[in-house]
Amino acid sequence: MLHIVACIKQVPDTKIIKMNPKTNTMDRASAPAILNPYDAHAVEEAVRLKRRYGGKVSVLTMGPPPAVKAIKRCIEIGADEGYLITDRAFAGADTLATSYSLTKALEKIGKTEPIDLVICGKMTIDGDTGQVGPGIARRLDIPPLTSVNKVVEINKDGGHIIIHRKLEDGYEVIQSTLPCLLSVEKDINEVPYSPLPNVIKAARYQPHIWSVNDLEDVDRSQLGLKGSPTIVSSVWAPQKPQGGELLEGTANEQVERLLGILLERKELFQLGGGAS
């Protein structure tokens, strides 16, 4: 029986979010909050492993009280328990402080139910750093396995796991000891529509909510803004490309027109002395 904990995050939908022109920061209030897409695949994989080997899936997140919504989404996917750590002391955390806070919560969860596997999404769409998962693994002193796109086997009795790690030109097969941490790619699975019983369970579910005072042996200097050495000087949205031409007609006509444009530009480039 496995106990798998998925670390998740509620994020703003970056397809909709706007930038604040005065502060050069993301206007998080301008977009709806969603479960980080990479984390949805992490939870789905945890649920699939539970079906294969038996056990339990817990999810853990740090954030403001509305992050309960992300936990409920995980219950819809098939998670069994959810934990939210929320406190003003956690505010302003970068990836270093976030990994510390989540580690303290994982240590508390593990004292009651030992954890065999921690699973995270590859990264969050509002940060794109991919640092929190490996940071947790380092603090827990367990192996971090990144860019995972397939779990081949888990042998709890033998104390090992075999995975495929995605590479640019293929994958590598890795065997690791348990417990360990996986950060998974989106292509590890497809997240299906949730069955009605899970939706009903999620609507009624109330997660465990902990403040900083509920955690043990916490160094407050490593929490939130105090524990965050990262400084973001500015953030901006890339400019949309200008110009361009809309090609009309059939696919063959579009290909012919595009080849003509490329040949014209090649001739101009050569006339301008750009080619030897």
From TrEMBL:
<dbReference type="InterPro" id="IPR033948">
    <property type="entry name" value="ETF_beta_N"/>
</dbReference>
<dbReference type="Pfam" id="PF01012">
    <property type="entry name" value="ETF"/>
</dbReference>
<dbReference type="InterPro" id="IPR014729">
    <property type="entry name" value="Rossmann-like_a/b/a_fold"/>
</dbReference>
<feature type="domain" description="Electron transfer flavoprotein alpha/beta-subunit N-terminal">
    <location>
        <begin position="23"/>
        <end position="218"/>
    </location>
</feature>
<protein>
    <recommendedName>
        <fullName>Electron transfer flavoprotein small subunit</fullName>
    </recommendedName>
</protein>
<dbReference type="InterPro" id="IPR014730">
    <property type="entry name" value="ETF_a/b_N"/>
</dbReference>
<comment type="similarity">
    <text>Belongs to the ETF beta-subunit/FixA family.</text>
</comment>
<dbReference type="InterPro" id="IPR012255">
    <property type="entry name" value="ETF_b"/>
</dbReference>
<dbReference type="InterPro" id="IPR000049">
    <property type="entry name" value="ET-Flavoprotein_bsu_CS"/>
</dbReference>
